[in-house]
Amino acid sequence: MAKLIVTNGDSAAQNIRDAGVKGRILEWRDMLHEGPVPAARSLDLVSDARADYIAATLGFDLGEVRADFAQRDGVLAAHIAYSEVELWFEHDLFDQLQLIQLLAYFADEPERLGLRLMQADTYLGALAPAEIGRFDGTAAAVTAVQLEAGRAAWEAFTAPTPEQMDRLCAAALPELPYLGAALRRLLCELPAPGSGLSLIEERTLRLLEGAPRSVAHLFGLISEMEEARFMGDLSFFQRLDTLAAGPEPLITGLPFGVAEVRPFTPGQTPGAEEKTYRDYARAEIRITPAGRAALQGTFDHAARNGIDRWMGGTHLTPNALWRYAREEARLIAPA
User: Fold this and answer.
1) Model's pTM, two decimal places?
2) In this predicted model, what pLDDT tens digit does every residue of 19-61 receive, in sequence order?
3) Contact (CB, 8 A) for 51 and 66
4) What is the CATH number assigned to the segment(s) 199-306?
5) So where are the chain's domains?
6) pLDDT 10s digits, 130-177
7) How far is CA 334 from CA 36, 80, 185, 295, 325, in A?
8) Long-range contacts of 43-46 (CB under 8 A, 24+ apart)
């Protein structure tokens, strides 16, 4: 019987194929760190909510997004057709959230013989085939402890408040060695006291203090600041949209919203879709007086401009404004 390998996306999947690793490769595509993630035991219900969010936020066709999720979930649901199911995931937040989703799924499955896990401390999508081949055969059998840790982490991530995640960050998780740091990084995307800025928002404004920069340049610099890079370009563009919105925008210069940006395939003949992406990526962004005031702690972006953002199961609104004091690693409940 064949082997099923589940990994984090197209780049990693293609590298695994190019390395000659035997098995069916399933791309697990979802930026779970952005948008609502319901506390549902059903994978279908989670996928429907995710498809609705992605289509509405990024301007994608809802039918196509739902079909992509349905195809992915259908392959996973037929996992008993494979003698082995290997989960290949990296150390960063993007991958760790996908990993706990899958562990929570398998924790509820009556049949999970042959389930194995390979946890990489590097980016599979950036490796040459010869390098990625060294991971073949290194996956270890998933233990009951790992399944329960994944289930608990998924329940914490999808809970209506970030309190369970905060408690998990303080716990030792040797069975999932990269999860604690990933969840701590996620909490840093809560608004900070005083400024109301997430870590990415603060870093973006700091980079703009000296001089305007293009969106593409900003994204590259922001990515380099991460100990474990997790954010894709469209996710970053969403954050820029937020900074440019509200009664007192913190940045200016965006040509249009991220929902009008169409991704393109490199190497293909340039067309209208590529132009929207390039126009957005080349746009020069400037910090506003409100942005400078936020960096000084005299303007509370989340309170003054309002907030309507999801972190897993937590809906951040003016009436449910959870904050995180990053220097103290302290969660602050709404007043």
Assistant:
1) 0.95
2) 889 999 999 999 999 999 999 889 999 999 999 999 999 999 9
3) yes
4) 1.10.10
5) 3-187, 199-306
6) 888 889 989 999 999 999 999 999 999 999 999 999 999 988 789 999
7) 19, 45, 20, 21, 13
8) 43/73, 43/76, 43/77, 43/105, 44/73, 46/101
